Amino acid sequence: MDIDAIHKALANPTRRQILVWLKEPELYFADQHHPLHLGVCAGMIDRRAGLSQSTMSAHLAVLVKAGLVTSHRVGQWNYFKRDEALIQAFIAQMQL
């Protein structure tokens, strides 16, 4: 676990909001055509945030690098979901 990368990722409000959305994707991305167990399509996250694809791609890359989010490619689309195990390990580490 890279504590510094996690802190960097969490320092940005947009990235924190992405984590909130991905915690309950059925609430925020119910209109996604593919099953949510795959994760949430990057395009859906872009639309919800109202930011450009390149900006969201950079935010998602930081979250993936920190390990807070995993990425899964299906065809030409990337799907993202939270890594709950790492998030819980990070929270436990911070409580020490």
User: What is the percent of helical residues?
Assistant: 55-70%
CATH class category label: Mainly Alpha
What does the oligomeric state look like here? single chain
What's the domain count? 1
On the 0 to 100 scale, the average pLDDT is: 92
What summary fits the major beta sheet?
A: 3 strands, antiparallel
Specify the CATH architecture: Orthogonal Bundle
If you consult CATH, what is the topology? Arc Repressor Mutant, subunit A
Protein name: Metalloregulator ArsR/SmtB family transcription factor
InterPro entries: ArsR-like_HTH (IPR011991), HTH_ArsR_DNA-bd_dom (IPR001845), HTH_MetalResp_TranReg (IPR051081), WH-like_DNA-bd_sf (IPR036388), WH_DNA-bd_sf (IPR036390)
GO molecular function: DNA binding; DNA-binding transcription factor activity
Keywords: DNA-binding, Transcription, Transcription regulation
Essential attributes:
6 helices; 96 residues; transcription; alpha+beta; three-stranded antiparallel beta sheet; DNA binding; DNA-binding; globular; DNA-binding transcription factor activity
Present the secondary structure layout.
Elements: H1 3-10, H2 13-23, H3 25-28, E1 40-41, H4 42-49, H5 53-66, E2 69-74, E3 77-82, H6 84-94
Antiparallel strand pairs: 1-3, 2-3
Helix pairs in contact: 1-5, 4-5
Organism: Duganella aquatilis
Keywords: DNA-binding, Transcription, Transcription regulation
GO molecular function: DNA binding; DNA-binding transcription factor activity
